[in-house]
Every structure is written in structure tokens, then in C-alpha cells.
Amino acid sequence: MQTDPTEMRLRSLMLASLDGDAAAYRSLLAELGRHLRPYFTRRLTPAFASHAEDLVQETLLAIHTRRLTYDRNRPFTAWFHAVAHHKFVDHVRRQSIRLTVPLEDDAPVIAHDDSADTLARRDLNIVLETVPPRTGDLIRRTRVDGASIAEAAAVHGMSETAAKVSIHRGLKALITRFAGGPK
Amino acid sequence: MTDELITRLAADLKPLPRSAMQRLLLSAVALSGIIAAIAMIMWLGMRPDMDTATGTMMFWSKFAYTLSIAALGFCATLVLARPDGRTRWPWLAALALLGLLVIGAVFQLTRAGPGEMMPLIVGGTSLVCPWRIVVLSLPILFAAILVLRRLAPANPTLAGFAAGIMAGGTGAWVYSFACAENGMMFVALFYTLGIVLVGGLGALLGRFLLRW
Q1: Taking CB atoms and an 8 Å cutoff, what residues of chain A touch B159?
Q2: Does the pLDDT value for residue B17 go beyond 80?
Q3: Domains of chain A (ranges, CATH numbers)
Q4: How far is B150 from chain A (nearest CA, A)?
Q5: Which of the residues A7, A17, A29 would you substitute to probe the B interface, choosing the one with the greatest number of B C-beta atoms within 10 Å?
Q6: What is the pLDDT of residue B184?
Q7: Is A171 helix (H, G, I), strand (E, B) or coil?
Q8: A65 to chain B: closest CA residue
Q9: Which residue of B8, B13, B22 is the best one to mutate when testing the A interface, meaning the one whose CB has the most A CBs within 10 A?
Q10: Between chains, do A60 and B82 touch, taking CB under 8 Å as contact?
Q11: Which of A93-102, B27-36, B42-51, B140-149 has the lowest mean pLDDT?
């Protein structure tokens, strides 16, 4: 009925093992381990790759303690795959409850400091106070908050061209004051 | 590491008899069923009209319905205890059986006189019947869960439910020897309710106790 050579070899090893043949059992478990290692490594994210060997051992142990659930009349590889799949799903479920992050991934937490943003914002407020209030607001809207010139102009009830000129003049004045004048 | 494990497991290998799982579950159900029967005799006692009851159609319909549900639950539990186990026919067969019982009950009610209707539906023990079935099923449910903990159910909740239906059917079968109700509709309603309650309890226990 079954013609797949892997299935036939593994199944005959399993049947011998169930009858108590330790040598067959040993070579069966060794071969299953060789199938399991890449199976788990492929499915785990790189952060959890080190868990693959644990999963291999857990699966081999489950095969041992629960081998009486294998039906001798059914394909062995299907049963084996179901055990491995169950162990993998169980692993993912446990990890999602107690999610751990490897040490290398900790760096980005200190790479960005929110208080630096606050300081920059404060400096910007001081600088923008040195130009007329309407010009300062136009610059803030278009260059900091990301609004378009048309939107900023509409807020102040002026034409787009007038807003453009106002922003240009304001920026030019700021550059003169803080960067030592235009080169 | 893994090689050491393989050596240890190979040293621990003992030959397994064919159909070891079936025997394990069957002996657990038989043993706990005997406990339930003893509990039933000590707690409720056999129905007083046992001698004449075995000649009635009603006694045997209760007997057959509950025992068939138990057997279907047994079949479902055996399949669902495997990691690659999927099954639907036991559930469909159990529903068909219930449908058959309801048809019989409607037939019985149409032939009954107006004064006999309510006793055939609600009887005199409808409030205690489901709970007695639950109590008598508990030993069987616990034994089944203990066995299932050594097996590998793909879906622990569903396997627990199947074990519960099996335990409920067996408990209801034991109870049918103590119950003197004669209405088919009574059985279809309150026996089924008791069995389903045990099924729900089994699903709940399975969810927490059958993880592997």
C-alpha cells in the first residue's frame, strides 16, 4: 500500500521497536533526530534558533512516552509529523506568553532618547520667537509639522505666494542670526 | 546531549502489546464503571420494579441508548487520543441516535392519553436525574482523563469532551438501572442533558489536564 521508501523504512523500524528491538529503536530515534533538527530550525525565527535542540529532545521524549498512540496500521510518518507539529505549536504558544528577547536586540532601547527631542523642541521655540509671530508659525507648520505651504497659508488667510515669501524671509533672517550670515 | 537521550530511551524500551491503548482505556472504563455501579446500588438502589421492568420496551430503550452513546464516546476518545486523530462519524451517529429516540418519543406521546403526557415528558425526577448521572459518571471521567494523560491528543479540549460523552453514557447506563421513569421524551431530554453536562466537564478538564 505504502510505496515511499522513507515511510517503509521508518515504519518497519517503528514496528520492530514496538516489539522491543532496542537496536532498531536506537537507529530510528537517531534518524528521526536528523529529520527534526532542520525541521525546527527552519520554522524558528533566528532569535529562537537555539531552542531547536531542546525541541528535538522534547519531541524524541514524547515519541518514547506516547508511542502507544501509534496505530500499527497507519502511516508512521504522518504520526511522527503530528507529534513534531504539536511540539512546535506548543513551543510557540508558550513563547508568546513569556516572550523573551535576546541580548543583541536590546541595543535599540537606548539608541533613541526622548528627552533629546524635548530639548530640541525648546531650542526651536526660542529661535522662532526672534522672527515675527506669523512667520514663525508658518515655518513651524511647514518645516516641523509637515504641513504643505497651501495648508499653512490657508490658516493665516494669505495667498500661497505671500506665505512662501514670508517663510523664505524668516529662514533667511534666522540663518543670518545663527549661522553667521549667508555665505 | 541528544545522543545520550537516545541511549537512555533505547535502554528504557519495553515491548508493547498490540492494541495496548484500546485495552488500557477499556479496562479503565470497566473498573470505574464497577465503582459507579456500586455507588449507584449503595446510594440510590435498583429500581423496585426491576423484575417486571426487564420485560418492558422502555427499559431496553434506555439501556440501548445510553450504552450506544458510551460506545460511540469510546470510539471517539480512542481516535482523538492520537496526535493525528480526527473523527466525525461518532458525533453524527450519536446525533442520529438522539433523533431516533425523539421520533420514538413523539410516537409514544401521540398514543398516550391527555393525562399521561406530562409524566412521560417531565416524569417525577427530572430535577435530580441529570445531576445523578453527572455524579455517577465522575469516577469514569476521572479514570478516562488519567489514561488520556499518558496519550497524545491533538486537541486536548475535544479529547476531553469525547471522554466526557463516554463517561456520561456509561454513568447514564448505570443510572438506568435505578431510574423508574417510563417516558422516552424524558430520556431524550434529561438523560441527554446529564450526558452533555459530563461532556462539558470533560472538555474543561481536558483543556487544562491533557496538555502534553
Answers
A1: none
A2: yes
A3: 5-105 (1.10.1740.10), 113-178 (1.10.10.10)
A4: 7
A5: A29
A6: 92
A7: helix
A8: B150
A9: B13
A10: no
A11: A93-102
Rg (CA), chain A: 34
Cell 499518558 found at: B150
Low-confidence ranges of chain A (pLDDT < 70): 1-2, 97-116, 180-183
Residue B181: inside a domain, yes or no? yes
What pLDDT score does A70 carry?
95
Q: What is the DSSP string of chain B?
A: -HHHHHHHHHHT-----TTHHHHHHHHHHHHHHHHHHHHHHHHT-S-TTHHHHTTSHHHHHHHHHHHHHHHHHHHHHHHHTSTT----HHHHHHHHHHHHHHHHHHHHHHHS-GGGHHHHHTTTTTTTHHHHHHHHHHHHHHHHHHHHTTS--SSHHHHHHHHHHHHHHHHHHHHTTT-----HHHIIIIIHHHHHHHHHHHHHHHHHH---
Q: pTM for this one? A: 0.75
Specify if B122 maps to a domain: yes
> B170 is in which domain, residue-wise?
59-209
